[in-house]
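Quick one, tokens below:
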């Protein structure tokens, strides 16, 4: 068979190139469809960039509308002298419980922010503030919100150890332990990598750091709603969350800050002492309510969605088996199902994206896609500059259909074949 070698193994080839029969409405891809004809039942272009952002769930949008206008709950949650403020505060606290429930936290441990980027900044800068000669351990393939924050602190005199990931994009337990020093105050690692979808062993690392009294910050923006998260069994001290990665609104996020034993971080935004003094600013009730509703839906549908995405992933990769030289970047086993980073031998990613005009995909993180430089994450796991320039990230989600992944894989096979033929 022709399907590609992976960086961490090999996908077993099937004697027939067909979607799994267990997938509802699956159609064999033995005959290449007319990829220039776009099925009327699908939205154009097919969205395969769920790792960048997710569409707001209609139930979330409906709930948010109740907290905007005069006939709704529009008050300031900090207004304690009248019913408008009390109602808004009650809505905020109800949403806080829903967010806490998804990660099995105490609602009092949830601090509202404007998104995971602010949460990461608050956690890292807040933990280091006031500590002379502090040392941080992180990795070279963290989200830019962590990488750039640690670089800024490094310029301010904080010592930072940058861990090199394995070829599959994971950070090893022993790597972290070997990097610890007497002055280490914080370790910052992501739970799920935003470009590769790989999962770090946060539970094992967190347990050891807890025994040593070292704070552990985890960016879980790409993990919430895609895998089970329990801050009890996965001992972390600070956990960053995002609304728009879980079918909620953009512009709202949260930071889990452990209460027992108490974790102290210094506020980075001042002016009113909101959120128990950790994050000042008027709370956007409608966005917070939206994030709460989104997390509530994610918790109730978690197992079902993971099962669906696993099936769609297999269908998508099966559809690419006619192509030689397709490499999966990341881990085949330690990963979430919805993110697939693929390199196509002999084909530049930018040219491929231009040819895939009916697919919405990316060449990496949305926070870094404005640059023409190859992905620092792919370079970090050992890919050459040329290999990194040949990679695209495909990410699927709640509204992805069997029809869409079949169409997408057929489009990719067609465009890659044509680009290789003219090189």
């Amino acid at each position: 068979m022709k399907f590609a070698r992976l960086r961490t193994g090999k996908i077993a080839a099937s004697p027939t190139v067909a979607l799994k029969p267990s997938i509802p409405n699956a159609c064999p891809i033995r005959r290449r469809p007319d990829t220039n004809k776009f099925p009327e039942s699908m939205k154009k272009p097919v969205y395969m960039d769920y790792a960048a952002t997710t569409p707001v769930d209609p139930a979330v949008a409906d709930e948010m509308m109740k907290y905007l206008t005069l006939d709704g709950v529009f008050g300031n949650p900090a207004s304690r002298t009248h019913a408008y403020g009390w109602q808004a505060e009650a809505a905020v606290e109800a949403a806080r419980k829903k967010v806490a429930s998804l990660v099995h936290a105490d609602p009092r441990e949830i601090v509202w922010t404007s998104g995971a980027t602010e949460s990461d900044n608050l956690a890292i800068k807040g933990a280091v503030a006031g500590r002379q000669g502090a040392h941080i351990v992180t990795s070279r393939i963290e989200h830019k919100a962590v990488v750039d924050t640690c670089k800024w602190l490094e310029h301010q005199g904080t010592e930072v150890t940058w861990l090199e990931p394995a070829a599959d994009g994971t950070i090893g337990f022993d790597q972290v332990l070997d990097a610890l020093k007497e002055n280490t105050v914080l370790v910052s690692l992501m739970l799920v990598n935003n470009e590769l979808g790989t999962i770090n062993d946060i539970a094992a690392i967190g347990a050891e750091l807890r025994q040593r009294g070292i704070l552990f910050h985890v960016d879980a923006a790409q993990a919430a709603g895609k895998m089970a998260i329990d801050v009890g069994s996965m001992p972390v001290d600070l956990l960053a969350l995002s609304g728009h990665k879980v079918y909620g609104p953009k512009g709202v996020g949260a930071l889990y800050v452990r209460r027992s034993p108490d974790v102290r971080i210094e506020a980075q935004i001042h002016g009113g002492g909101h959120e128990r003094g950790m994050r000042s600013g008027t709370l956007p009730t409608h966005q917070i309510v939206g994030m709460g509703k989104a997390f509530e839906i994610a918790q109730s549908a978690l197992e079902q969605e993971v099962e669906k995405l696993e099936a769609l992933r297999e269908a998508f990769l099966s559809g690419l088996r006619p192509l030689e030289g397709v490499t999966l970047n990341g881990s085949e086993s330690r990963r979430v199902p919805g993110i697939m980073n693929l390199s196509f031998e002999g084909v530049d990613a930018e040219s491929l994206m231009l040819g895939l005009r009916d697919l919405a995909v990316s060449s990496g993180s949305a926070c870094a896609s404005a640059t023409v430089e190859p992905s620092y994450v792919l370079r970090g796991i050992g890919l050459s500059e040329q290999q990194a320039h040949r990679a695209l990230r495909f990410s699927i989600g709640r509204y992805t259909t069997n029809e869409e992944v079949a169409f997408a894989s057929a489009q990719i096979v067609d465009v890659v074949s044509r680009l290789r033929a003219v090189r």
